[in-house]
Amino acid sequence: MRPPVGAPTLTRRTRILLVVAGLLVLLLLGGSRLINFYVDWLWFGEVGYRGVFATVLFTQIVQFLVGALLIGGLVALSLWIAYRTRPVFVPVSGPEDPIARYRTVIIQRLRLFGIGIPVVIGVIAGLAAQGDWQIVQQFLNSTPFGIADPEFGIDISFYAFQLPFLRYVLDWMFVAVAISFVVSLITHYIFGGIRLTGRAGQVSAAARAQLAILAGVFVLLKAAAYYLDRYELLFSNRSPLFTGATYTDLNAVMPAKLILLFISIICAAAFFAAVFRRNLQLPAIATVLLVLSSVLIGAAWPQVLQQFSVAPNAQQREALSIERNIAATRDAYGLNNINEISYSGQSAATPAEVRAETATMSNIRLLDPAKIERTFTQRQQLRAFYGFPPQLDIDRYEVNGQLQDFVVAVRELDTSGLSGNQTEWINQHLVYTHGNGIVTAPANEINAALEDSGGQGGLPVFTQDSPDIPESLRVQEPRTYYGELIDTYSIVGAPDGAPPVEYDTDTERYTYNGRGGVPLDNIVNRLVFALFYGERNILFNSSINENSKIMYVRDPADRVRAAAPWLTMDGDPYPAVVDGRITWIVDGYTTLENYPYAQRTSLGESTTDALQPGQGGVRPELDRDVSYLRNSVKATVDAYDGTVTMYAFDEQDPVLQTWMKTFPGTVRPASEISPSLRSHFRYPEDQFKVQRELLTRYHVDTPGDFFNNVSFWNVPSDPSPQGAGSGSALPQPPYYILAGTPAEPGSPPSFQLTSALVFQQREFLSAYLSVSSDPDTYGQMTLLRLPDNTTTQGPQLVQSALVSDPDVSQEIGLLSRNGQSTVDYGNLLTLPVAGGLLFVEPVYIERANQEVSYPQLARVLVFYNGRVGFDPTLAGALDEVLPGASAVVPNIPGQAQAQAPAQAGTVPAAPAGPPGAANPQTAAAASAIQQAISDLKAAQQNGDFAAQGQALQRLDQAVQQFQQANGQTPAPTAAPAPAPGG
After folding, report:
1. Is the pLDDT reported for residue 923 higher than 80?
2. Which of 180, 281, 437, 646 is most buried (CB neighbours < 10 A)?
3. Helix, strand, coil abundance in the chain, percent, nearest 5
4. Are 590 and 633 in contact (CB under 8 A)?
5. C-alpha distances out from residue 634 to 79, 585, 670, 738, 786, Å
6. 149 in helix, strand or coil?
7. Which of 684, 911, 681 is nearest to 776 (CA)?
8. CA dist 720 to 289, 423, 795, Å?
9. Closest CA relative to residue 317, chosen from 308, 328, 326, 330
């Protein structure tokens, strides 16, 4: 018999070369990771959240070690046992037996294979295990909810924090045992413990014992999995109608899991018994029993019950599960405390009652923040390297004691606007480093009507252009180094006394003196960042000195996301002037994937609308399903120094409490939120979108109605994208407005996020949802619910009525000027007014095919009780559908000009003739009119809404008296607007 040929031996030189090559490969693969690690370490130190970085890193290291030791250790143990129990004599099947050749190679390098294989497998397993650090930390720091699930009576924290960890550990145990089984099987085969020669083959006693024990442990783990499966049934998606355990799950699947659990224990015992028996008949029978039981009990029986018992009686069978689903969903998404009010939607109010809604009527928004970015850019950009985000923001400020909403945008650095020599590395990274100021404009004002200003009307009234800027909008530090458009790094700082180099204005330069940025005061940091960015200038540029700092991760949402990786970010950070500083406010959500019986919702789908279409994929953190959502954290990022501060906004949230225990000191208590900051908090859009989507179904109280779907609603599709009434399949976005509290006449204005809702597969309005952002009433939801038989038109029908009106259609054609201008419809606002619903939509025009063109407000469309108003000004359009409504519209430039002709017949004048010719009744009525106008103006200036209502009522009565004194029929249009200046 010829001995097997072994592998050729390696020379000393070859071994050295292989070691060097291996080190180079490790350096190439690990060098970039080390650089990234150091850059992250410096950044977390800059923002003061190095504890977060250290905690995550420590958790991942421990997980790596546990995973590597568990998998690698079991593999090593399996190899050792299989090798030590190998047969002493192994017959060779022939001169070319490949197994003998492999066996010889392994024996010659026994240490290499015996240590190398477990190490490689352990490292791979450790790298895979470190990714789920959040599951581990939530388990270690779990906080009770104080709410028990309806089936087992266990606190929700078990499902939120403990069950995921137990499943995580169990899954890794499965992997460890499975890999050990495969390794043992291969080892026994190579060393002759398992031979396939002969009719039935041969298995040594040692091989049989080892493999039987591993198989028995695997089956025992399967029994543990069946036990955990019972709890996971509470997240079942068997029913397409709701999430949670169905009748079939509770009455078939759950008992089946218990039966299979006991069968698995019996099967495991059979495998263990095989250790002492010479054949494998008993474990084979047990395996067949387990497989048949899984098919018959675990799959077939639930299907039979579903088809022949549940499906024919689904409404009755699923009633309990639907009831649980409704209750859990409302708990999980904060839909329990909604103030639901019956609302007619069709108003029979008098003009005086409509005018009494001053909080809403005097704050109707004309500027659509999604349409006027180019207007802001052309009018306020100042330089080509400044810019504004594509969608501007809405916020509110107190001006002269009254709340007013503003369109706001930071004038940010936009490096895409640099050109020519400005794109040189020094200019791009050392000179052009920051933006300049915040731009605001009252949302309900324009500078003038378009026709009355030589084509320069219909524009925002920029607060910064006014010599008297309100105190609430004064900025002490206008320079902005952190924003949504800044997508590159900047290097700032200079030695004391050195001339500044950063561009500030055309005549001035500036040197940054804030706390933001990572120091470049040593050669190590400069070398690391030169490698990180692949830019040698960072290392060799002489302008970089011991005072220099490099700024990176400059987007506000990215900074908060990095500092709090356990949060889900809202998609719309917004700027605010807080105590004289430009501050970015970012909303953070805590979420859970599995809340018992709560409806599972896709964040990406629920937050998609006409303004956030999700083109190119949704944000990564939204590409998942959740069943619990809370806006638990409000974070701020200082636009000048990048300081990240997080506040616990919902301190009762158990998920937030869990993370605060995980990262102590990173989230400040709500008591530290200053009143000035709190006054700018907005109810976040993404949360509102998820809630309104769920509310279309979960406003239903009874399981029967829920099952039948007849009472479901829809979020209306957006009625006014580009083009007249072309419609869109995407949902209509929610809108921030400043208005009176719905269904509370005389209430002061409050800042709200609102949305209309329509009946399912019908375009009639079903409800109107609003949520307050005011500090005293933050989060209070109001649902105006219209009758089920209402014919109140929804946004799509209203848009169709507006654009199909003959006068409107003709006027729109004239505005387009045969294609020389484009007409664009703004947001269609829905406003509850005096029992009815007022729809207001701005119409913008823009010169076609002009690079420097920008939208200008050309017309305002108004719809109320089936009537259409269309005018260059809001006042004129309102008067067409609500005669006299212009009395409560602010006297702003452009509107005042347009109001004069419309009001010529509404302000009663004394008859012509010599003084004293008028009868006493006429004179008294005229005097009462003037006094009522004076009282109305004084009440508007003082913000006294009750006095405004009383003045309007007296004005209406005085006009009627004047008309009666002159022999005229009293008209319902007797309310003049006070003239500018009194």
Report:
1. no
2. 180
3. 45, 15, 35
4. yes
5. 54, 7, 9, 22, 34
6. coil
7. 681
8. 63, 40, 9
9. 308
Between CA 327 and CA 242 the distance in angstroms is 12
Helix (H) or strand (E) holding 479: strand 479-480
Residue 902 has phi, psi (to 5 degrees) of -70, -25
Q: What span, in angstroms and rounded, lies between the C-alpha atoms of 676 and 430? A: 34
Containing H/E element for 187?
helix 163-190
Residues in Cβ contact with 151 at an 8 Å cutoff, skipping those fewer than 6 apart: 234, 245, 250, 324, 596
**Closest by Cα among 751, 771, 717 to 608:** 717
- Say if CB 474 and CB 547 are below 8 A apart: no
Q: Strands of 598-643 (E only): list them.
A: 601-602, 625-626, 628-638
Residues facing 693 on adjacent strands: none
* Residue 969, amino acid: T
Place of tokens 């109320």: 864
| Contact assessment for residue 341 and residue 782, using Cβ atoms and an 8 Å cutoff | yes
pLDDT digits (tens, 9 = 90+) for 789-801: 888 999 999 999 9
| pLDDT tens, residue by residue, 587-636 | 999 999 999 999 999 998 999 888 887 654 556 778 889 999 999 999 99
- Pair of tokens at residue 40: 């992250």
Residue type, 95: P
Q: Which of 861, 610, 603 minimizes the C-alpha distance to 728?
A: 610
Residue 278 structure tokens:
């010479």
* Closest to 390 (Cα-Cα) out of 375, 403, 406, 405: 375
Please name which of 672, 629, 623, 615 lies closest in space to residue 649, comparing C-alpha atoms.
672
CA distance 836 to 864: 8
Q: E strands within 799-903?
A: 821-825, 829-833, 836-847, 856-864, 867-871
Helix ranges (DSSP H) in 48-88: 50-84
- CA separation (Å) from 34 to 22, 27, 40, 290, 550? 17, 9, 10, 49, 19
pLDDT at site 18: 73
Give me the mean pLDDT over the 513-529 stretch.
93
Mean pLDDT of the chain: 86
Which residue in this structure is represented by tokens 């309005």? Answer: 765
The region that residue 466 occupies, defined by phi over 0 for left and psi between -120 and 50 for alpha, beta otherwise, is beta
pLDDT digits (tens, 9 = 90+) for 720-773: 755 444 445 789 999 999 999 887 777 889 999 999 999 998 889 999 999 999
Q: What is the largest CA-CA distance in the chain?
A: 143
Binned at pLDDT 50, 70 and 90, residue 847 comes out as confident
- Separation of alpha carbons 225 and 267, rounded Å: 15
In this structure, are residues 575 and 584 in contact, taking their beta carbons and an 8 Å threshold? yes
- How far apart, in whole angstroms, are the C-alpha atoms of residue 647 and residue 628? 20
> Is the separation of the CB atoms in 859 and 880 below 8 Å?
no
Bridge partners of residue 575, in order along the sequence: 584
Handedness of CA 809, 814, 817, 823 (dihedral sign): negative
Amino acid letter, residue 861: L
Whether the full predicted model's pTM is greater than 0.90, yes or no, is: no
Q: Residue 647 is which amino acid?
A: Y
The number of residues in the chain equals 982
Q: Name residue 933's amino acid.
A: I
Reply yes or no on whether the pLDDT at 902 is more than 50. Answer: no
Q: How far is CA 690 from CA 238, 470, 655, in A?
A: 22, 36, 19
CA angle 486, 490, 493 (to 5 degrees): 135
Q: Which tokens is 835 given?
A: 């029992």
From residue 36, alpha-carbon distances to 42, 123, 537, 673, 961 in Å are: 10, 21, 19, 34, 80
DSSP H or E stretch at residue 937: helix 920-942
Task: Copy the structure tokens of residue 325.
Answer: 């689903």
- Strand duo 338-342 + 781-785: pairing: parallel
Q: Which of 114, 106, 111, 77 is nearest to 90 (CA)?
A: 106
- pLDDT digit string, tens, across residues 48-64: 999 999 999 999 999 99
